[in-house]
């Protein structure tokens, strides 16, 4: 054991070594209370404090043969994470949370974005684990090749069944696997056989098959080769099918003697065991049940119906069915003694399951004996089914042919392929692409990166080269955190061999660690303030990241005084740059721009900002509004525009005015004003804030929004205005279009946004409603791409108008945007 410096302990455990533990190995977990963690101490890292708490809980559970020997915490050392060289380390909790891999209602789920809604839950769980503990580079490349093949020209696939491997193995080893479990196993085995056969025809070179098997070996820890895997799956499926009745063999009805005995009674006693084990394995049991059921029917026909032939009730003296089924007591009886009987004395009250006499029911000794015999043989048949299934479990466990291994590998094969298939389908729908990930390159080129939770048609993409550290300053709400989260998620997905919301020519280096530190929040359960939690994560970053790491640090130091926060952020920035880390460092502490950073550090920092656009009055050139473009550009930003953002979110004007007045009193410790250079900016920001949302809610403004969304590479689109009672031009008929209707009265205006391919008919239908609709004005514009494109533009137009304060009455159509798909 080597106890060196700079030990690494990822917060999330990596995969077990399945090759040593084998299939079905169990991992026992003990959750430690945060109250057991030692208090923070200078010079003692969080990883050391965590190890102390773990050892305190571990030592009492260790049993030692020699009672005189004792183990102390000093006998344990931390080992380096045994991650394959060149791979990406497991994610830290903060990183996983910021990227939507751990539950956080404020951050969109990354896993949900990777699949269509129809994807099964096991696939989602698989990819979540895959991303939390990224695979080695070779396995990631195999996943990339598999997804790429399925995404471009993959073959049709059989139904993929994914039984829960751990649960299935536990049931088999305990001898408690049901016929339903075995059918799922058999379906998985047969799907694996079909996959191997299909890939042999489609994948002539065997590259995709090899990729699938490499992932299978990594996930299962068992060696795999196509011919051997197919043979073992076939043998295992054959054994199961020889015992278990398959779905297509479900022609095993319960006994039925018409009205003589209610069919529900036979179903209640026979359905628990019928249709589970092959009839050939239980011929004697089936024959015994059939004989007992026939005898019971004969007795009931004679004593309850008064006939000798169960197939002929025409001679019965009963006008309606006399037989009553007692579900709770599992018996059949009659309510009264038959009037036609010549021997009333043979009828008596039966007893219930607790031995109490049922005084409202009657039976005979012959019926009761036949009933008891029938129930006994049904119980024997049920026991025989259990015995056969238990024996099948034992045969699979004890077989030297590796049947359990075949079950494990077939389940993993189905899960891997199902995951890759559904992810490839979602990538095609959303126009996501596979980036090229390489080792040994310094420059990463991100092409058209956009947020993973947004559709491409609604998002603003960014293209940039990332080499070294970006010092990112920008106004509030301008998209810097979104850019960082988008870039980090794209890097993680690409490192794991998955599609990402990037352009096709994206190339990035392989990073050993991806670290994202976002906005702070306190952690009461661990006695950490927001600043304490922030510093804990920064300590983890500095301890675990190096020159091959990709890091994203967002607004550190804001949980303490501006001076201390600025200096601390500057020191952290200087250290991570000097270590050669790559990434983005975002801040609103603009004093960091003036700190005396080391010269060798300054040369490795690229100063970036998020661009904003000013909207000016055409008459006097005065700036009347500021719009965020969400585009990355070179430069610095010293004005976070907090008052402007506050105004947009409804902070009262009196608060903004008072904040402006107070800003002039903000001074440094040496008495010089820090806002002298910003007074003019502050003044203009406040005035902008006061008028920024004075938007003209009229049809011209709404039409401009519609034109903005429809305009493309061919230039600015122009909407057609249709005055009240007028008809739209004939040239717009027969083509998809989006329209806006303005409904006016003396006190208000409201707007309706819709789409249609028959504008004239649709307008006439709206105006036929009468009232405000009758004299409404319409603007319309044709849309390329058909109905799907028109629906998208309809949705985004509704969303934009609603955000601008328009009263939109067709909000239901703006709740979602359909993915635009591939070009």
Describe the overall structure.
Residues 1-27 and 668-693 have low confidence and may be disordered. The chain has a 6-stranded mixed beta sheet, with helices on both faces. α5 packs across α14 (403-430), α6 crosses α9 and α8 packs antiparallel against α10. Helices cover 41% and strands 12% of the residues. The two termini are 56 Å apart. The protein is an alpha/beta fold and 823 residues long.
Ends distance: 56 Å
Strand content: 5-15%
Mean pLDDT: 84
Q: Please estimate the helix content.
A: 40-55%
Q: How would you classify the helix and strand content by structural class?
A: alpha/beta
Describe the protein's topology.
Blueprint: H1 18-21, H2 46-58, H3 93-98, H4 110-113, H5 121-132, H6 137-153, H7 165-173, H8 179-202, H9 207-220, H10 226-243, H11 263-270, H12 283-305, E1 323-326, E2 331-334, H13 365-398, H14 403-430, E3 436-438, E4 444-449, E5 462-466, E6 469-473, H15 480-495, E7 507-509, E8 513-517, H16 530-544, E9 549-554, H17 562-578, E10 582-586, H18 599-602, E11 605-616, E12 623-634, H19 642-648, H20 653-663, H21 679-691, H22 699-710, E13 720-722, E14 737-744, E15 749-756, H23 759-767, E16 777-782, H24 786-803
Parallel strand pairs: 3-7, 6-10, 6-11, 8-9, 9-10
Antiparallel strand pairs: 1-2, 4-5, 11-12, 13-16, 14-15, 14-16
Summary keywords:
823 residues, six-stranded mixed β-sheet, alpha/beta, four-stranded antiparallel β-sheet, single chain, 24 helices
Concise overview:
With 823 residues, the protein is α/β, with parallel strands linked by helices. It has helices spanning 18-21, 46-58, 93-98, 110-113, 121-132, 137-153, 165-173, 179-202, 207-220, 226-243, 263-270, 283-305, 365-398, 403-430, 480-495, 530-544, 562-578, 599-602, 642-648, 653-663, 679-691, 699-710, 759-767, 786-803, and strands at residues 323-326, 331-334, 436-438, 444-449, 462-466, 469-473, 507-509, 513-517, 549-554, 582-586, 605-616, 623-634, 720-722, 737-744, 749-756, 777-782. The strands form five sheets. Strands 8-9-10-6-11-12 form a six-stranded mixed β-sheet, sandwiched between helices. A four-stranded antiparallel β-sheet has the order 13-16-14-15. A two-stranded antiparallel sheet has the order 1-2.
